[in-house]
Amino acid sequence: QVQLVESGGGLVQAGGSLRLSCTISISMFRLIAMGWYRQAPGNQREWVTTITPRGVTNYSNSVKGRFTISRDNAKNTMYLQMNSLKPEDTAVYYCYADRIGSRDWGQGTQVTVPS
């Protein structure tokens, strides 16, 4: 089983920035996709962004232009740079990694943007 460990969450004022990290226990070249979801209290888990091994990225409309996903293959680490944060970005953020036939999740990291 693939293990994913997230870090970088915290409390930040509206308009501020945070960078989340997700370190993966296997080579990222063995994955078919990876990315982030988030879940706010009382809401379903919501897709945020995806990056493929070739570097193709996609973003939800709610974060496009403010969030950037990237990866460092040598460190087996994926990043989510979050700028211009809003109170509605408050959620637990989960990274995921897809192999053929399976998806693995990180434990989640809390991001709080007070209103």
Briefly characterize the structure.
This protein has strands spanning 4-7, 10-11, 18-24, 33-39, 46-51, 57-59, 67-72, 77-82, 91-99, 102-105, 109-112. The chain is mainly β.
Question: Any overview of this molecule?
Answer:
With 115 residues, this protein is mostly beta strands. It contains no helices and 11 strands. A hairpin with a 5-residue loop joins strand 5 and strand 6.
What's the gyration radius in Å?
13 Å
Task: Give the number of DSSP strands.
Answer: 11
List low-confidence stretches.
none
Structural class of the helix and strand makeup? mainly beta
| Helix content bin | under 10%
Give the amount of beta strand, in percent.
over 45%
Shape type: globular
Instruction: Please provide the ordered H/E string of secondary-structure elements.
Output: EEEEEEEEEEE
**Distance between the ends:** 39 Å
**Biggest sheet details:** 7 strands, mixed
Mean pLDDT: 96
Tally of alpha and pi helices: 0
